[in-house]
Amino acid sequence: MKKKPLSPHIHIEETVNKIKMLLSKSKGMVLDDNLFGSLEEMCDDLGSQLKNGKVVTENLSVENEENEDSKILEEQIQEEREIFDNVIDVMGAGLCLIDKNSKIIWANDTLKEWLNLNESPVGGHCSDIYHCDVVGTDKCPAELVLNGKEGHIIQSWVTTKSKKRMCIQHIAIPITNKNSETDNILLLTVDVTESEKMVHRLLLLQQFGEITQGTLHLDKLHHLILTCITADYSFGFNRAILFLINKDLNVLNGKLAIGPSSSEEATRICEETASSHSLFEIVQKLDYSHNIDTSLNTMAKLMVYSLADTREVVTLCTKEKKPIIVRDAAKDTRVTDEFRKALGVNEFVCVPLIAKSEPIGVIVADNVFTAEPISDERVNTLTMFVNQASLAIENAVTYKNLEDKIDQLTETQQRLIRSEKLAAIGSMSSYVAHEIRNPLVTIGGFAKTLSRFTFTDSKIKVNIDIIIEEVKRLEKILNNITDFGKPSKPEKINSQICEIMENTCMLMENYFQEKHITLQKRYETDIPEAPVDPTQIKQVFLNILMNAVEAMPDGGKLDVNIEFVNESIKIYIIDAGKGIQQGVLQNIYDPFFTTKPSGTGVGLSVSLKIIEDHGGTIDAMSEQENGTTMLLTLPIK
Amino acid sequence: MTTVLVVEDDKNQRLLYEQELKLEGYEVVTASDGKDALGKIQEQLPDLIIMDINMPKMDGIETMGRILGKNNEIPVIINTAYSNYKDNFMSWAADAYIVKSSDLSELKNTVKEVLAKKANDS
What we know:
- The complex is a heterodimer of chains A (637) and B (122).
- Chain A has 637 residues and is an alpha+beta fold.
- Chain A has helices spanning 8-25, 33-91, 109-114, 126-130, 141-146, 193-214, 218-230, 263-273, 279-284, 295-302, 313-320, 337-343, 376-451, 458-485, 497-507, 509-514, 534-550, 582-585, 603-613, and strands spanning 94-99, 104-107, 154-159, 165-176, 182-191, 239-246, 251-258, 304-306, 324-326, 348-355, 358-366, 493-495, 517-523, 530-532, 556-565, 568-575, 617-622, 628-635.
- The model of chain A is unreliable at 1-6 (pLDDT under 50).
- Chain B has five helices and five strands; from the N terminus they run βαβαβαβαβα.
- Chain B has helices at 11-24, 34-43, 60-70, 89-92, 105-121, and strands spanning 3-7, 27-31, 48-51, 76-80, 96-99.
- In chain B, α2 runs parallel beside α3.
- The radius of gyration of chain B is 13 Å and the shape is globular.
- The relative contact order of chain B is 0.17.
């Protein structure tokens, strides 16, 4: 009989049946050896089968035990893994394990969230998810760390799965095995958004300082300050309004407001400026005219608060010289209803502008569109910023005052110089006139004496007459000059300017006709009298009319208009002549300056002196070949 | 006959005035400067003095002052090439102020006027 390896249960049954058969067959027989042998075999077989079954059962039970253990182990492992995962998630960092070939072995959930990964990155190359620009180069931190050197820190901005903008840093940490070799690398990713923003703000502060040093133009400066406050990625306030103190009226007046007037505009601006992070870029793109017409700006300009009224939070701010944060405007007693409604927002901050320990204004900033809460830390940075701004404004104001003073000084200096010139020329001309006049008296006098004699030769009388005539001419010139040097005070009487002009024009009627001049007079009605010296004014009119005629040697149109404007009488004398060159225009009042071949150059100097003695002014407007307009202005008091 | 004292430092002008005034019928005495004038006045008191201002040693204003100090009845006509002494308060003390000219008619007329006035006053 063959021994077959059979499954325990069947075998045992079969073997038992066989034994039963054999026993039944051998009933009443004597057990022979064969039979005995087979019986033994079967018993052995059964025994071993039973043993097998036992072993198998034993094995089974051992296996069962092992399964039990491993189940427990597995559960333990699972638990620990969960704890581990929890810890890692709570840590708030991204973790990623990569091997020597930069293949990703494992990545945690936080990393997947931050890098916005839709599927598991395991198995991919680290550059698939990190998108850094040092991949494959020797700057790669993983490579460096593998070679035993210190790894670089890589930084980048990302948009997370939940649409948040974050700034993250990746650090490579080597993982060594039992033999102290680096097998794998752990990439640790941390969130540095807040500190990055802080660094950015401080950098902006420094940049801002540099820019404002260079900006002395006040309006530009105001604009710049508010732009810095509202620029994205800096202080990031949505709107900023600048109020300045007007000392004369003792009020706080809105000067400039920058910010979107609606949330649509806000979103649009946000998208536009998302590309420019640097302050210099923002400043360069600044369009100073852009914000003038916004409704926010118009509203700001209409906001006026008396400094005596401390009910308003802005006035209070200037008095206390400290920033005021208003978190709930509706419930805050410092905020009036009108102000809150005007601003249209519940949370805002007021920062005072202080220069030389005195308040010069207030800046109000809010986050009306993004509704981001205003943190104390942000207000601190804003205050630092505004302090710098105040200094810059103070600088600009001082500079402007300086400019004004310098202008005044220059003007005064020029007048002084001219006055001295006049005085010097006056005294010189008076001396020269005197020296020449004396001999002239002798020459002319004796010539006259001679002319009384009768001569046989008629030519003698003619010649003597010529001498007398020439002497007269010289004396006339001298008279002109000495008139100029004469410090004659005008004797003023209330006169009608139009009348004086009429008289002068009548005097010159023949002259005008001779020179083919068409005169057109326009006098306003009801011009009041003015206190003037008629003779002197007539002299001035004469001078200027003569100049006008001489500018039109071939004749032309001459307009004389007299008006009464702003408590002054304005006399316009307009010719259509050859005009005065730009370069010459500034010299026309200089004594002895003339462009005429036979001019003495004193006419306008004398005229200017006379008009100034009357408290008036002369203005000359001229273009070459386009005529000249002389405007005389005389006050009526 | 009316005596006129002409005080003038320019020699030629002195001659001119002397000639012309003599023609008018006056007796003419001349002086070349202030000192000379004072001396001439001591000798004979003139009816009228025609005074130039710009003279060496003592100018016309000072001379006039001295003369009028002693005798303030004498009329003085200032005859000068300068036109800006008109505002000098001393020259107000003169009876007339004339700017020299080759045409002596103004001078002659003024002499007549001043003498007539003096005659009327006294």
